[in-house]
Amino acid sequence: MIESLLVANRGEIARRVIRTAKRLGVRTIAVYSEADAALPFVAEADQSICVGPANPAQSYRNAEAILAAAKSTGAQAVHPGYGFLSENADFARTVEANGLIWVGPGADAIAAMGDKINARNLMAAAGVPVAAGTTDPTASADAALDAAAAIGYPVMVKAAAGGGGMGMGVALDEAALRTEFDKVRGFAERMFGDGSVLIERYFPRVRHIEVQILGLADGRVVALGERECSVQRRNQKLLEESPSPAVTGDLRARLLAAAVRAGEAVAYRNAGTVECLFDPQSCEFFFLEMNTRLQVEHPVTELVYGLDLVEEQLRVAAGLPPNFDPEALSPRGHAIELRINAEDPKRFLPGPGAVTTWIEPAGEGVRVDSGYAAGTTVTPFYDSLMAKLIVHGRDRVEAIARARAAVAGFEVAGPKCNLPFFAELLENDEFISGEYDTGIVARMR
What we know:
Blueprint: E1 4-7, H1 11-23, E2 27-33, H2 40-44, E3 47-52, H3 63-73, E4 77-79, H4 89-97, E5 101-102, H5 107-114, H6 116-125, H7 141-151, E6 155-159, E7 168-171, H8 174-192, E8 197-201, E9 207-215, E10 221-233, E11 236-242, H9 249-265, E12 270-279, E13 284-291, H10 298-305, H11 309-317, E14 334-341, E15 353-354, E16 357-359, E17 366-370, E18 377-378, E19 385-393, H12 396-409, E20 411-413, H13 419-425, H14 429-433, H15 440-444
Parallel strand pairs: 1-2, 1-4, 2-3, 4-5
Antiparallel strand pairs: 6-7, 6-8, 9-10, 9-12, 10-11, 11-14, 12-13, 14-19, 15-18, 16-20, 17-19
Helix pairs in contact: 4-5, 7-8
EC number: 6.3.4.14
InterPro entries: ATP-grasp, BC-like_N, Biotin_carboxylase_complex, Biotin_carboxylation_dom, Biotin_COase_C, CPAse_ATP-bd, PreATP-grasp_dom_sf, Rudment_hybrid_motif
Domain ATP-grasp: 120-318
């Protein structure tokens, strides 16, 4: 096993990685910005080092500062968490070039999946279903109009280098497409330094379903079930559950097999997620993208399969076999994760502030992965995620009941908080039925 680990992230995911590493006897090193000095993860690591000011470009995205911290503290490995540098192929290469272990997939796999157009083409060649769309960057609005005419409206306009729900727009006709093309291309150039644009078929009523994969040290790729991720605002997830209430029998077998093929196509190692769109009307699913890192929603898979995915990540990175039998995977019960964000529960606008009250719920089947506590401050410099509330039950009915009780028992004061939204969602007839899609939040509003 790895002996010392630098966690190149912050907040909830840093605490999560540190917790597993400590259980395994691995020395932990935290890096933090000046704005995060008082957060729990800084004190919980065996050693902590400040890598810069609040601006993430000068701290958590500062590859030179993080590598310097790794060297000065004698770290053997680097775990990137999610966001920041986690899907930066150049950073992964640099970590390994400096003699450190990268706890994640190889840089080539990260690069291959980081461009949506290249990823689509690779998946199509591997026999993974992809939606109708362009196979090369769309060079102009006129070229986008030609592509849309061949695909058929409505279409989705996407930044090829985008991720996390950013850099996308929907066009219902030619006029809207011209507007969305210029908007998405401009956003992509500013945010990602790459203005490449993809035109793809758009599904007005669709579900967002993903499969957790794990590329083992011996070269095998295994699928650890699916997660339903259709509760979203502005294309960003708010609630995830596993298994998906829309997936059974043959569909699950096809989804998991496609995800394994996707991983094998890029010789995938470590944890990753194959994201798909599912059309309930036709029962077709299509490859959306691959996230070459640990997902925010990984705990629902952990609870259903009884695994610790961070431990499995470390074992793969160390060249060790998994701590489970890949031939005897058996899901158990139902899990739901709610992202507790510092944002208005109606309009979902960020609302940072000092945390004056923080009381976490407890009880059978309840888990909280948090990044904050009373006396800390949610600053405006980073993502609004404060904690993840995860529940597990014998079935979906029990999981929803436990989620309701846990939401009622979670007390947060100071920053704005979206807990009231979840109280509403968990009583919503469409959600309770399990027959919802990515438009459910908009319909609630």
